[in-house]
Design a protein that fits this description.
The structure is a single chain. This protein is an alpha+beta fold. It is 30% helix and 21% strand. It has 4 helices and 5 strands; from the N terminus they run βααβββαβα. The protein has one domain: 3-Layer(aba) Sandwich (Aminopeptidase), CATH 3.40.630. Strands 1-2-3-4-5 form a 5-stranded mixed sheet, with helices on both faces.
């Protein structure tokens, strides 16, 4: 698998990949919002390709202090081959180049397979934190993107 930087011309492909992989996509995954993420974090948004076909994707973000991992996905037909691990290792290396001390990610509780994947890679579950969210503008936020 070859790792490349994401470009907006691949937006529809990654959106379809996220859906195939069972990732919930919402209004923050619209074309406009993904473009904003790419502009802020151009070196942290990676694709995995085999024969020019996108088989994996991960978005990394940096807030100036800490790194965040969003929407790592591997096409179900290509899972269990080490592609997710390879893509995460490439992202972690980019975080290191940026001097990031700590990286966080969020997993939906019911997704035990993903929890196990990250645990196997050395990630630790935090039980000392509570995640909270606030929606400042209900006209912008939508839980799901309509097909």
């Amino acid at each position: 698998m070859k790792i490349e930087k994401f470009s907006m011309k691949s937006y529809n492909d990654i959106l379809n990949l996220w859906k195939k992989a069972g990732i919930s996509v919402g209004s923050s995954d619209s074309k406009k919002e993904i473009k904003r993420m790419l502009e802020r974090n151009p070196d942290l948004f990676l694709l995995g390709k085999i024969n020019k076909q996108i088989v994996a994707v991960v978005m990394g973000g940096f807030d100036g202090r800490r790194g965040y991992v969003h929407h790592l996905a591997v096409d179900p037909k290509h899972q269990k081959r080490g592609y997710g691990k390879k893509l995460m290792n490439a992202l972690i290396e980019e975080f290191r180049r940026n001097g990031i001390h700590k990286i966080h990610l969020f997993i939906e509780k019911q997704n035990r397979t993903v929890v196990d994947f990250y645990s196997h890679l050395g990630w630790q579950i935090r039980d000392d934190l509570i995640m909270m969210s606030f929606v400042p503008d209900n006209t912008l936020y939508k839980m799901r993107i309509l097909d």
